[in-house]
Amino acid sequence: MSVTQLGMPAIGAPGEARKGFFTDTSLCIGCKACEVACKEWNSLPADRPLQLTGESFDNTSRLSADTWRHVAFIEKKVPAPAAGGTEGIKWLMSSDVCKHCTNAACLDVCPTGALFRTEHGTVVVQQDICNGCGYCVSACPYGVIDQRPDDGRAFKCTMCYDRLGAGEEPACAKACPTQSIQYGELDELRERADARVAELHERGVDEARLYGRDPDGGVGGDGAFFLLLDEPETYGLPPDPVVTTRDLPAMWRRAAGAAAGLLAGTAVVFWGARK
Known about the structure:
Shape: globular
Strand content: 15-25%
CATH architecture of the largest domain: 2-Layer Sandwich
Number of domains: 2
Largest sheet: 4 strands, mixed
Radius of gyration: 22 Å
């Protein structure tokens, strides 16, 4: 049983504050500088073949083994005013990334230890240990982790683990021209996000809400959380994500109980037959 299932997530090194991302989609202009910076720094291959996805100006479509930051262009129809007029379009843009969950199911199911929790509280895959089993792919409640078809190894955002070790911020946050992507200590980012939502509400943007910020949520809070301007489903995010391995301890207990009962029954039959 993992520490995440015991309710005692091993987050960060002693004395070190957990690091994370706060992505404010109200500031995103869809420039995709974060995507480019992520690919350049991590030497990720280009998406091939580039296709017309039919999803506005989005040609990468989703997070993948080769795209660790993905900027979605969402065109949402706006109803015509009651007094008449024509139907309009509302643009929503959001840079998606691995959530670096507090209770990370991918860590629970990895049989080789390829996934580990870093001293910054982030979750990283070690490709030289990954055996390509794919368990982490199906365990992720956000569908973030992906495998490369040539060898099956799993890849995802590392929050630029090598840069953090050198005292630098992640490449995507460094490249963002509007500070839509903010990096820092998670507790500080949560306070900043709360203030930002309050500011937007005062300005009449009532639809502004935080996603993944709550430490009491289904995954224990995300290490990368978002300010959204619409329902999570509009952005392709699950409305109520839960750690997919939350029921494992209970399942193992039931299985152990059933096995014990079967053994006891077998013993009774065996000894009864001998008599």
